[in-house]
Here is the input.
Amino acid sequence: MDFYLSEGGVRTILPFGELDISGNEELGYRPFQLMVASVAGCSASVFRKVLDKKRIAIDDLKISADVEKSPDEANKIISIHLHFVVKGVNLKKDQIEKSMEIARKNCSMIRTIEDSVKITEKLEIVNLSN
Here is the structure.
């Protein structure tokens, strides 16, 4: 990946398009937003693949991320809490929990930072009627 100076930050061009990165939200994505999005996005993608492999159908998945930064270390991210809300019909809690454990073990973004950033997860299952 190549990065180039842009107005107020840096830019990279990826196969999906241009990505502007800046400490100023008006000029691009803030680095901490990209870090959290990487963790949540990776986790969701791997979780979905695990569910698909186990043939567990879901209707919806929402992940909310809460970030805690250190007030003493230049806003260093010290923890990310992911709240998963999984909706579907006849979902079995034990199967979904096991799938989440497998996803966590296979998410490259979580594995990359888990020794320096505390990652926690909460699972909420909403069973919909037929």
Remarks:
- The domain at 30-128 is CATH 3.30.300.20 (GMP Synthetase; Chain A, domain 3).
